[in-house]
Task: structure prediction
Amino acid sequence: MSRYWSPVVETLQPYVAGEQPRMENLVKLNTNEHPYGPSPHALAAITAAASRSLRLYPDPSALALRTAIAESYGLSPEEVFVGNGSDEVLAHTFQALLKHDAPLLFPDISYSFYPAYCRLYGIAFEQIALDENLAVQIADYRRPSGAIILPNPNAPTGIALGLDQIERLVADHPDQPVVIDEAYVDFGAQSAVSLVRNHPNLLVVQTFSKSRGLAGLRIGFAIGQRPLMEALERVKDSFNSYPLDRLAQEGGLAAWQDRDWFEQHCEMIVQTRERLSATLGSLGFHILPSSANFVFAAHATRSGAELAAALKARAILVRHFNKPRIDNYLRISIGTDAECERLVEALEAILTDEPTTA
Ligand SMILES: *Cc1c(COP(=O)(O)O)cnc(C)c1O
Result:
C-alpha cells in the first residue's frame, strides 16, 4: 500500500495465473496450454510478418482476421470483436455490458478472473453454487440479475452444458446480456455461436490460446449482434486502439485458416484425455466428465495439496485450487502422450509411498 495509489487499487484481488517456471525437464500441465501447437502455417506467417513493416501501426480493426472468423460462421465482420487474448475481450465485456444495478451472476466455482474484473470495475456480483456433482444448473439462474456469465465447458471442472441448456438460459433472460466463455469449447462441447442470430442478448467469447496453441500470441474474440459489438468497440477505443499487433493479426489469420491442423490436433488431445482419464480412474481417482483440454480429478485417499506438491518435487506441474469443495481436486492439462505417461509413472510411485501428513 502506498499513499500514491488510487483508492480502488487497495480493493483489488488480482487473478493469480498458474506458474511459468524455467526448469529443466519440466512437465507443465498447469495452465491448459496446447501440447503441440501452433500450426506451422501460423509460425510461417508470424516469421513473414516480422519485417520492417513493424515500424507501422497494425490495422486497428484487424479486419482480415475478423472477416475470416465471421465467414466461417456465416456472419459479418461487424459481428466479430477481437482483442489481446480473451482475457482482454472479457475485461472489455465486463465494463461494456455487465455492470448494472442488479448483480452479475456466475458460478461459485468458475474462472477466477471474473470476481477480479468485478472488483476492478465496481460491478456487483453474486456467485451461484454448482450442484452436488459440481455442475451448473441453469434453473438456479432464474433470479433478479443484471447479467450472466458462464464458461462452457466450465473451468476448472471441464463439465459442459448442452446447447439446449445454453439456449434455455439465453431465452430465460431476454432482458439481460448473457455471456458464454467458450475458451475450451473445441475439445468436445457445442458452441453457442449458432444462437447469436436469434438472440440479441447473447455474446460468445473464444480464444486462440487453448485449441489453436497460441497462448503466447494473445488473441481472443467475441461474437454477438451489432449493438453488443458497438459497446465493446466503444470501450476498446477508449482503452487501446491497437490491441492486436501485426504478428498476432497475421499469425491468427493463418492459424484460423489451417482448419485441418486444428481439427486433427483437437482430436489427438481428446483421445489422450480419454486414455488418461481411464488410467487415472484405475489409480483411484474420481474424474469429472471433461469436455476440455484438462481433467479435474480427486483421489480417493490422498489430498489434492499433497499430490500437487509430490508431483512438483518430480518436476511435474498441475494446478491445485485451495478452495472449499474443490481442494481435493487436481486440474491436469492434457499434454503429449509422453508427458501424460510421465505423470502416470510419477503418480504410481507417489501412491505406493506412505502418505505424508500435511
Ligand atoms: C484460458 C481462459 C481464458 C483466457 O484465455 P486468453 O489466453 O486470455 O485468451 C478465458 N476464459 C477461461 C475460462 C479460460 O480458461
Notes: The mean pLDDT is 96. Residues 85-87, 111, 151, 155, 181, 183, 207, 209, 215, 220 surround pyridoxal-5'-phosphate (CB under 6 Å).
